[in-house]
Each structure stands twice: as structure tokens, then as C-alpha cells.
Design goal:
seven-stranded parallel β-sheet, Rossmann fold, binds 2-hydroxyethylsulfonic acid, alpha/beta, two-stranded antiparallel sheet
């Protein structure tokens, strides 16, 4: 039996991360599922025959442990851990929320990428997928802290592609629009479920986490010479950030 290829997925405890871990395991990868909530990833790892690593991507020591568990060769890294905190206009925004968004969406991605680069190189054929957002393409009211961080994800991805051009590592950014996951909007609104539900109100079919996971699975199954630079994925009902078709009951 050949040794399975290794995929590391951060933020694997729910949403896009969990769906991606499942999809890559189905595709034959041995998946290292990383997230802060150990109980959730332990359950996931048991389900998919993978490995759970408790890891807060903003903590370099935890990330170093993740790299240790991942081992000397890693073929796919999905930098998915991230999130939005708050939706306040700049005039009233809480700097602590902005700092937290920068920490997880930007510095977290940096820590994990730096820690795993040697193993990605060593694999001889690797892929890094950074989960960006349509928020990394446009501006919207109340979104500046998050859009700034996700614009960061986009340019970090572009920069890494330039810097690693001579290496056997492909680099992709997946930029989802409206994805209805159990936690993204609830976290953004500090657990206010009514506000979270309002985001998707009347949208017949927002994307679901599996839609994004399938795109990642496809990107990861391209031949080694094919680099998918970026994919912007929105539900049919979202023509643009502000142009969402809603059906009122
Ligand atoms: C999520 C998209 O519209 O909430 O990354 O900024 S949005």
C-alpha cells in the first residue's frame, strides 16, 4: 500500500474547514484536522480516519506542534481558520475586534504557512489553499476590519506565489461569498442568532460549506503543473456583495 498524501486543514472544527477535511479524506488524503476545539476535531478525525491536533493558529507554539504532528512531508495545506468579528462602522468600531481579525486571518495564516513550508517543499508537489472572501475584493459598510483582513489574505496569497515560483508548491485563493455555515455570522454578531439569521433571510439557496469543499477538492486534484490562482464563488442569488436576491414570504 502506498503512503497516503497528507493534508492539513486549519479551522477544521466546523463549516468550510470541516467539510474540506471530509472531502479531502474521501479523496484519499490523510487529513490532519486542526482547530481550537479539541472535542470537535477528535470526533471528526475518528470519522474520517485522520488526526486531530488542538491548535490556535494565533499561537506560534501550538502551530509548531501542528507542524511536528504533520511530519516531514505535507502535500496540501488549507489555511481556513479565520473569521469576522463585528459589523460596526469605522467611527464606532472596536479596535480589539480589528486586532483579533488581523491576528487570525493574517498572522495565523503566516504562522501556519511558515511552520509547514519545509514539509510542503519536501513533498515535491504541494498545494496551499488560502480561504479568502469576496470581502477581499470589495468594500462594504461596517465591514472594514474584516475586508482589510481578507484583502490581506488575497495579497499574501499573490505574494507567496511570486516568492515560491521556483518551487514545487502551487498556491490558490478561494474567495467565497455568502456561505451559510452554522457559525460564521453567529460569531460575527457575538452569538446574536437573530442578527446572524437575518444575513441569509429570504435567500433561497446560499452556498453551503460542501460547495466550497468540492472546489478545494477539485483544485487539489489538478495535475502538478496546473495552478488555479483564485476562485470567487458566490450563490446564484448574490450577483454582487450588495446585490442579493431575497424572497419575502
Ligand atoms: C464572508 C463574506 O459577505 O460576510 O467571507 O463578507 S461576507
Amino acid at each position: 500500500m502506498s503512503t497516503p498524501r497528507i493534508a492539513v486543514v486549519t479551522g477544521a472544527s466546523s463549516g468550510i474547514g470541516r467539510a474540506t477535511a471530509r472531502a479531502l479524506a474521501r479523496d484519499g488524503f490523510r487529513v490532519i484536522a486542526a482547530a481550537r476545539r479539541e472535542d470537535r476535531i477528535a470526533e471528526l478525525a475518528a470519522e474520517i480516519g485522520g488526526v486531530a491536533v488542538a491548535c490556535d493558529v494565533t499561537d506560534p507554539a501550538a502551530v509548531a506542534r501542528l507542524a511536528e504532528v504533520a511530519g516531514p512531508e505535507v502535500h496540501v495545506l488549507v489555511n481556513n481558520a479565520g473569521g469576522a468579528f463585528g459589523l460596526d462602522p469605522i467611527a464606532e468600531a472596536d479596535p480589539a475586534q480589528w486586532k483579533a481579525m488581523y491576528d487570525v486571518n493574517v498572522l495565523g495564516l503566516l504562522h501556519v504557512t511558515q511552520a509547514l513550508l519545509p514539509a510542503l517543499r519536501a513533498s515535491g508537489d504541494a498545494l496551499i489553499v488560502n480561504i479568502g472572501s469576496t470581502a477581499g475584493r470589495v468594500a462594504y459598510e461596517g465591514g472594514a476590519g474584516y475586508t482589510a483582513a481578507k484583502h490581506g489574505t488575497k495579497v499574501i496569497t499573490q505574494t507567496l506565489r511570486l516568492e515560491l515560483v521556483a518551487e514545487p508548491i502551487r498556491i490558490t485563493e478561494i474567495a467565497p461569498g455568502m456561505v451559510a455555515t452554522e457559525e460564521f455570522s453567529a460569531v460575527r454578531f457575538g452569538g446574536d442568532q437573530a442578527k446572524a439569521d437575518a444575513v441569509y433571510a429570504g435567500v433561497a439557496e446560499p452556498l453551503v460549506a460542501d460547495d466550497i469543499a468540492e472546489a478545494i477538492s477539485w483544485v487539489a486534484s489538478r495535475p502538478a503543473h496546473v495552478n488555479i490562482d483564485e476562485m470567487v464563488i458566490k450563490p446564484r442569488a448574490q450577483a454582487a456583495q450588495h446585490k442579493v436576491h431575497r424572497v419575502t414570504p
